[in-house]
Amino acid sequence: MSFKIIVLAKQVPDTRNVGKDAMKADGTVNRAALPAIFNPEDLNALELALRIKDKLVDCEVIILTMGPFRAAEIIREAMYRGADRGYLITDRKFAGSDTLATSYTLSLAVKKLEPYNLILSGRQAIDGDTAQVGPQTAEKLNIPQITYAEEIIDVNSTHITVKRRLERGVEVVKSKLPVAVTVHSSAPACRQRVTKLLMKYKHSRTITELQNETKDYTELYSLRPYLQLEEWTVDDLHADVEKLGLSGSPTKVKKIENVVFQSKDSKVLTSSDADIDGLMKELLGSHVIG
Amino acid sequence: MNNIFVYCEITDDRTIADVSLELLSKGRKLAEELQVKLEAIVIGHDLKGIEKQIFPYGVDRVHIADDARLFPYTTLPHATLIIDLFAKEKPEVALFGATSVGRDIAPRIASAMRCGLTADCTSLEIGDHFENKTQTAYKNLLYQIRPAFGGNIIATIINPETRPQMATVREGVMKKEVYDDNYKGTVHKVDLSVLTEDDFVVEIIERHMEQSKVNIKNAQVIIAGGYGVGSRENFKLLYDLAEVLGAQVGASRAAVDAGFVEHERQIGQTGVTVRPKLYIACGISGAVQHRAGMDQSAQIISINTDINAPINHIADYSIIDNIADVLPKMIKYYKANSK
Ligand SMILES: Cc1cc2nc3c(=O)[nH]c(=O)nc-3n(C[C@H](O)[C@H](O)[C@H](O)COP(=O)(O)OP(=O)(O)OC[C@H]3O[C@@H](n4cnc5c(N)ncnc54)[C@H](O)[C@@H]3O)c2cc1C
Ligand SMILES: Cc1cc2nc3c(=O)[nH]c(=O)nc-3n(C[C@H](O)[C@H](O)[C@H](O)COP(=O)(O)OP(=O)(O)OC[C@H]3O[C@@H](n4cnc5c(N)ncnc54)[C@H](O)[C@@H]3O)c2cc1C
After folding, report:
1. Tens digit of pLDDT for each residue in A208-257?
2. Which of A283, A284, A286, A287 is the best mutation test for B, with the most CBs of B within 10 A?
3. Would you tell me how many other CB atoms lie within 10 Å of the CB of residue A213?
4. Do the Cβ atoms of A261 and B119 come within 8 Å?
């Protein structure tokens, strides 16, 4: 029987290189100014999935991502690196989801893909930064969870053994399958694109993307159905609309502030003997040191 | 009913983790503001007398689950016990450390209770809220304040409708303060009968925990070095100054990534949060992610060749010069003038 791995992956703005134009005047984030990337730890998760696929004879790696239309980019990116197929979960009604609503939505999509053996996700997304979606999706699916995976030591049709990276140490745990595993950045980096796969999948598109293109792909797609990336909306998931998006999100953002300096009155000194001696004298005098 | 709950983590030598004591200290203050009681949860094994470590923080009631299967921590049995307890006790607020354990268990519990959870808070306050859409007024909500977007924004998050209002808080963010050494609370033994075999499907095969050798979190004086220090060898100057001052050496992530110092010394959003009496930043530019872990220091001295480095904006003294010229002089003066 085939071994099915579902990888949850998110397209995120690259918050690691935030420039001046990244914040709008009203203090909200100008997403358009930030490049959209594959969430870094989700690439680690993809690598762990592909390593299992390398080992097992019959194994399928499926990408699930929830986001706007352009998030289809990361499905293609994953397929260039070895994933078999992917689904884009997209609908206006998902907008404003907190982690609870996100996990609910993802869990419904996972259920559509049943039976599965393993769910892999990143530990944390670099925009929301919560690390909550992995454990919450596991809870919604009523399966166990293993967080902060660094290495998959062993996997067979019924069990998995995982090395976890903790703040102050490491742990090796064994669980029965299916289980949801979140992957830490200390796991191996993801392999590069494979040229053959890039050639094979570069014309893959979702329906929405096709509608926006001028070229007619009808013939190409009837010959190569694997180029069709599937889109799932609220209707496909049979979701309870009350549990989605803003209405399904118990957390509300009351206020967002741009991080600004609270400038202090800073005294500027040099390394001259007078400056350093004066400073040290003051520190000793006020008993901050000594 | 409607009290404040803190999940207490325990270490291998059966002491309550610092982060949990910090949360109890904060919980005590919130309890007073809301005029409710403070309750603690401890789950583990060999916990006889553990409540003595907890009551001085002003805890009114401690829930203890003591069983060989409950230590070391695994997610499912701890989560099952807490979900059951919360269903009965209906807490108003529930706080967890933003640690390997807290960030593993809190989302699972929040999902089961269908309540909101705010990650990695750096501040918790009580406040009101008016919802324009529904014209509803809410009193005494927990304002959960946290950085997001890689530390570039600070968001205030509220959970108007769902209870408990859940949050995780990083170690070092709140201040640990004994409330009353003679404070007396009560002990409640947690009902273990809700646990089933299914809670034990994840089994720990091997475990290596390192006691952290460096303790920068509680240091009164910190000499922190950044990428500008230049090399592992140059860090020796910082250790020299730290030794004469009785200080600890900290670092920025760039210094850690460059291999100048070990990761345990990293200060900032993805490292430790510190609040010493004196913070000397050597060759650190002062990125938001770094400042997030040190801007509560009582006094800040920056040593940086670049007068425009952002760290200078939050420094009390900015020494605009080369580290190699400044540190030896500080050491020399201190040796000559301290008793
Ligand atoms: C400023 C700000 C603060 C916020 N604070 C909170 C908060 O405190 N609590 C809260 O509940 N929500 C919060 N949110 C909302 C939260 O960011 C979103 O719910 C988001 O959809 C998921 O959370 P995350 O980005 O933190 O993901 P994480 O939980 O960090 O993601 C972990 C992993 O889950 C998977 N994953 C996450 N999202 C998706 C997706 N859309 N598709 C596929 N896989 C995915 C990925 O593998 C990812 O690596 C906040 C949002 C903002 C903008
Ligand atoms: C999600 C995320 C989390 C992060 N978490 C953290 C974190 O926890 N902690 C952290 O520190 N960073 C963190 N960072 C990284 C952070 O953004 C910065 O890259 C980092 O703090 C820079 O370190 P630095 O100041 O040492 O190096 P630089 O920015 O390179 O600064 C070096 C400074 O040294 C000065 N200098 C050079 N030579 C000398 C000399 N001879 N004498 C005096 N001064 C000199 C320069 O003028 C410069 O200001 C994080 C980043 C992201 C995206």
Report:
1. 998 888 878 888 888 999 999 999 999 999 999 999 999 999 999 999 88
2. A283
3. 10
4. no
